[in-house]
Fold each of these.
Amino acid sequence: MKSAYDVVVVGGGNAALCAALSARERGASVLVAESAPRDFRGGNSRHTRNLRCMHDQPTPYLLETYREDEFFDDLRRVSGAGIDEPLARRAIRESATCGAWMGVRGVRFQASLRGTLHLGRTNLFFLGGGKALLNAYYARAEHLGVDVAYDAEVVGLDIEAGACRSLQVRVGGAVTTVAASAVVVASGGFEANLDWLREVWGDAVDGFVIRGTPYNTGTVLRMLLDAGVEPVGDPAACHAVAVDARAPKLDGGIVTRLDCIPLGIVVNKKGQRFGDEGEDLWPKRYAEWGSLVARQPDQTAFVVIDAKVAGAFMPSVYPPIVAGSVAELAQQLQLPVETLQATVAAFNAAVQPGRVNHAELDDCRTAGLTPEKSHWAQRIDAPPYCAYPLRPGITFTYLGVRVDVQARVVMGNGQVAPNLFAAGEVMAGNILRRGYLAGFGMTIGTVFGRIAGRGAAAHARG
Ligand SMILES: Cc1cc2nc3c(=O)[nH]c(=O)nc-3n(C[C@H](O)[C@H](O)[C@H](O)COP(=O)(O)OP(=O)(O)OC[C@H]3O[C@@H](n4cnc5c(N)ncnc54)[C@H](O)[C@@H]3O)c2cc1C
């Protein structure tokens, strides 16, 4: 780490590396300050599998077409009103060029697999996942002469009149000041900061699982907000899915997610159902189940399926709990036996005749239940019976900083910071206020990482 750079990039995930490569390719000297050690570099990006891309014709890895208007409609449907439309449209249009840009920098792709939420038309899948993508970017960064500091947490930003001239970086207990002509903040959300989450969720946080990196503590986000940068997004909102309750508290990644909820029923600790497991196609509903489970006693629930649906979903990394009868299953799960039996019996009695089709909103539903199951309702009557324990798994938080279309940070008084840029999750709230579009996190990071890197280099080099 030298004492001064044209561009300092805060963070070491996808948005950071896209910014670092873009700035370096324009001739800037670049430092990447990554708070994780080398083996754990890459933030939440290393857990990813794909990014969402618009395309006007099929490609070797993307089926059919996915045009700007359809992409924008999908975004508006999940995110509701209040998003920054010019910024959103820029993300969508520039997503069309991401695949080629990534390919030149060593990323390889693969066709989407079965059980990956039917995303083969809209999402480009990385061969080897996010870890391979980041390895390719880091290799290229090192090859181009980007300095990468690991175990390097940014603990201070010197912001005056909207400009950031230097940063304090803590490496191995010592804090060093590094001067920068331009700064790109790509430090993710604050989802790994349990104290900050507790401000919103209270003690329920003790039952949460954080799916990604422990290093996304929101330190830099907090510093920016304290320095007067305009916040965007709901401070209380986070993306949460149902994960296997046996997952580690932090960093369990994608393999702990459970996608069999639409194929069975979900009960809480009392053995009672509490949500419509078949309300909509799973890609549109999976992100609701984290907060549904979070509202149950002890933030605990169980998904129950039978032999009919075995093999029809991407399994968790943990084995299911298996039993020959519903009563035996209840005992193993430590649920009230009679209540679970009654819940299953009531569900079975309410299932209407229909033809099951997991690929569409089929006509298999219940009638007369509270809550109903609207699609894919099949009797749970074929042993062995299986269950997975569930907990809320927090993916990321939505609170971020406002930016303009050039990814420059906007201060609370409307002034644009000339040399301070933000990319990735830390500014995603400008275009994603709630809900989620699978793959859009990596799109935002790639598009605005590139924009921020180019802008930072241009600012630094005049
Ligand atoms: C399990 C899982 C699966 C996912 N799958 C997908 C998917 O397939 N497609 C998709 O689009 N999205 C997916 N997401 C969401 C996706 O991970 C994020 O949208 C995306 O990675 C954000 O990229 P980023 O570069 O902004 O942040 P990150 O990749 O999280 O990087 C943030 C970086 O900042 C560093 N950092 C934090 N604070 C500091 C500090 N003070 N000083 C220095 N460094 C700091 C961290 O160490 C980290 O390197 C997934 C998330 C998870 C958890």
Amino acid sequence: MNRRLTRREMLVEGAIALGSLAVAPAFPGCAVVAASKRKIRLSYDAVVIGSGFGGSVAACRLAQAGLSVAVLERGRRYDINPFPRNWHNPLDGWLWSIGRGLFDLKLCQEMTAVQAAGLGGGSLIYANVHMRAPEAAFDRGWPRGYNRAALDPYYDLVAYMLDINPTPKSRMPTKARLTEVAARELGRAAQFCVPNVAVDYDAPGIEHLNKFGVSQRGCTSCGECCIGCNFHAKNTLDLNYLAVARSKGADIATLCEVFKIEPVATGYKVFFKDHANNEQESEISARYCFISAGAINSTELLLRCRDREGTLTKLSPRLGDNYSGNGDFLAFAFNTRESFNPSTGPTITTGIVYDRTDDGFKNWFIFEEGGYPKELHAILQLLNPHWGLFRAVGFVVKGALQNAFRALGGKVGATDRISDETAIFLMMGRDLADGEIQLHPRTAELSIRWKVPPNLALYEAERRLSTDFATAMGGNVAINPLWRLFHIPATVHSLGGCLMADSREDGVTDASGEVFEYPGLFVLDGSILPSATGVNPAHTIAAVAERNVEVAIRRFSGIQNWRAPEAALAKPVREPLGSVTIPAGGTLPTIAQ
Ligand SMILES: Cc1cc2nc3c(=O)[nH]c(=O)nc-3n(C[C@H](O)[C@H](O)[C@H](O)COP(=O)(O)OP(=O)(O)OC[C@H]3O[C@@H](n4cnc5c(N)ncnc54)[C@H](O)[C@@H]3O)c2cc1C
Ligand code: SF4
């Protein structure tokens, strides 16, 4: 499907290749990253925008099917470069908004969202948990053909590619044991489970090749999963799906951020900024275009194309709808009776399901124990009820984050603690997915509208259960201050905005992720999920991407039974949630009011 390049195209190609080899504007203390060591041509069969769970699956399968593929990823590569670790300067490589760093924070008025920027997307900083959405999650707004049974073979395939397994008993951190004990004390033992995680538990710290021939090391339990694993013990997407895509000829360019898509006679023209090359604007064209920039960014890109650039004017009026924060809720317990040791990882190893109707609202959520790098201990103590929130606010007001770091007297980054009595709790559940991603009509600024009152019953149940666990552990509960003070939820699991549906009146794409009115234009990522999964969603995002790219490849190639080569190797995987039992009438009410 490749064609010969014209002389002009070769010149432009040379320029992009040179640019992509150029050294990125460095942030101090962090290794510089080149955009790509490969050339980017001007034309491909398929271009994939973004390299998270949707984009990596798409790139891998399209390349395996013999299409020429380009991946344009806005962030840096971390497979060959270390993750940021400068604890004395919060601006050094940490933030996307400052120096194209790893974390992209969206501080919208009604929702705070955290996402990743980098090759491998959210897998770089996620907590590795893979959980299948329970059957009931598909009842709300999913197009025809979607249910758990239909997705199970694709979940199995993702499980094979990412080598998921429950944390072995011998590797369970103390925090997992304490959470299980607390669950038992609270009468919730039957809802306790050990989720599958994409972690390499082989010989700690020892280098070996994974099944795709990529070098990894075994998990050392360092607890740094959510700031990037420098051991590559997390089975992140750059080490499997993207490595296969690359081996099948896909060109992968990092620090290339797409800002416009335009339909042309031969497919789509994709315009991007080359952050490694003085923000030079370039374009490539492809017959097929897969947008996989994540729920917020894919929606924003399409909104800009429809409402500002005027290139995709026929997009559905439903664009931006059904945004969900996946019911995320964050809480802490300080001064626990026994040391919780939250910095001995991996970040998440256990879960407890809550499933009951409270005041007429059907609540379903999962409570997971969390963790954080030991260097964050001191700054998190600012949330300790014994310290008082005002002191924390004082630090920040005095001189923003950097001064707050200094004011702590260098305690951030201190690594001499041997025990830590701070527990962290992460919850996610089935919110109503009734938010909206918008561009301000005048300023074109991104905003996320989120209605708290209809979802309050869920957040309140999550707060009460956190209080019960904190009390059972002998600690004092502390709730995410943004929620406590302003009722602004925070999420790391944004979903929706480009929902799949059976018609353009109801959604942005069809049931296979192809955009209504735009043949050959696809969205494959968390934005097409019509409702909250209620569990960690990456597994479902990847499984839906596997399903949809298979449909697309069968159509492109005319091979009706095309399957991913690894489908033959994937075995049915036991979903730990399946062993959870829910009593008739629901799980116990909380003790806390
Ligand atoms: C701290 C943290 C912990 C988490 N833990 C878990 C967990 O344990 N389990 C779980 O299931 N989920 C977890 N998540 C959520 C999970 O990471 C996301 O749900 C998932 O990554 C979303 O996949 P996606 O394909 O939709 O998009 P992403 O993975 O976000 O990928 C989108 C990619 O597109 C790139 N991009 C964006 N805009 C552009 C553009 N204009 N041009 C080019 N590239 C672009 C981004 O840089 C990114 O690499 C966690 C998230 C965070 C932040
Ligand atoms: S705990 Fe997380 S960051 Fe540390 S080695 Fe294991 S997987 Fe990597």
